[in-house]
Amino acid sequence: MARNIEEQVAERLGALVDDEIGESFQQLGLVGTVSSRLRRVNAQLHYVGGAPEVAQRLQAQAEAAVGDLGSVSVELVPLDPAGQAELRERLMTPAMLEARSSRTPVFSLPGATTRVIGVSSGKGGVGKSSVTANVAVELARRGRRVGILDADVYGFSIPKLLGLASMPRVIDDLILPPKAFGVKVMSLGFFVDEDTPVIWRGPMLHKTIEQFLVDVLWGELDYLLVDMPPGTGDVALSLQQFLPRSEIFVVTTPQSAAVRVAQRSALAAKKLKLPVRGVVENMSAFVTPGGERYPIFGSGGGAQLATELGVELLAELPLTMALREGGDHGTPVVVHSPSDLASESLRALVDKLESLGPVRRYRGDLKVQSR
Ligand SMILES: Nc1ncnc2c1ncn2[C@@H]1O[C@H](COP(=O)(O)OP(=O)(O)OP(=O)(O)O)[C@@H](O)[C@H]1O
Description:
Blueprint lengths: L4 H11 L1 E2 L4 E2 L6 E7 L2 E8 L4 H15 L5 E7 L2 H11 L2 H9 L12 E7 L6 H14 L4 E5 L7 H4 L7 E3 L2 E3 L2 E2 L2 E5 L14 H13 L8 E5 L6 H9 L4 E6 L3 H16 L4 E6 L4 E2 L5 E2 L6 H9 L2 E5 L4 H9 L3 H4 L4 H16 L15
Parallel strand pairs: 4-5, 6-12, 6-13, 7-11, 7-12, 13-14, 14-17
Antiparallel strand pairs: 1-2, 3-4, 8-9, 10-11, 15-16
Helix pairs in contact: 5-13, 7-8, 9-10
The site of adenosine-5'-triphosphate has 21 residues, from α5 and α11.
């Protein structure tokens, strides 16, 4: 039976997907009234606000979706507070409800399967954020569900590295993490002006990290990568409390001075009973197109640190222009120059990370019964 035009418009609009939530407008109950008058169809689509670009993008998507159905105008209507409260209820999973009432992140509830990976370094500028962003994007390209918590309060660079500029959307009191290259991101950088120095006190940081872990709609994740601030400060302590299942990976450059400070941060993690699983040496060498290696920052530091910590050296990432340019332009090198040497090394790093698998943990509650 031929459907009328209103039904067709409602169906097309309902099929649009809110990428950050990962559900269609129909599933979310956000298609409003669709009526027609004098051969003109007027449709309403509810949306949850955010930056003006979000509405502009949605308007263009909606118009494109119904463009071939004749004269249709789509009006975007921001969801009112009652509608937001209803949507929030709809999006809350039982795990999120439990997480909120106990203020324990879903990643730390019993039975959680997300691998939580803390990326740490001794000092700033060694490429920890670039490694985090590229590893996350490569994992997402392989079909894994990935989030990044940018906890590097002294230099939140993840949004810029992934080309994200807008503030996260908020449904009632639930924060939606913006998504780039398939990776969900939450960062202090979304909330503060890049040029304004922010002085964070320990308790304030602790509270913010808790909020980012508990009040953000992360959904189900295979990996949560945490870009940690360099050094051994308060944030590591907060992370240990909120995410005791974190595995730590240490990024260093090959210089011996860098290795010494990196070792300090690795030892701090060990003290907090967070397992250090591997070392990544970055900026290992510049390689000419002819294959000549120039170890600009010295050599051997990553291997030395790995030996001292009793873990594997997982990668020696070269210094490349493409990696730096990718970061500057907000498109990670694994996406914009997949054949670059750095991309090859980053893919090999992700292979290793995946093959290492999660840490095996002793479960005190499981005991072998003897008769
Ligand atoms: N292998 C590399 N080749 C070329 N440039 C690199 C490489 N790794 C990092 N960079 C560049 O070095 C700079 C610092 O990198 P990044 O911000 O990732 O470091 P970081 O350790 O996270 O520093 P911070 O903690 O200060 O944010 C960036 O401009 C980045 O593009």
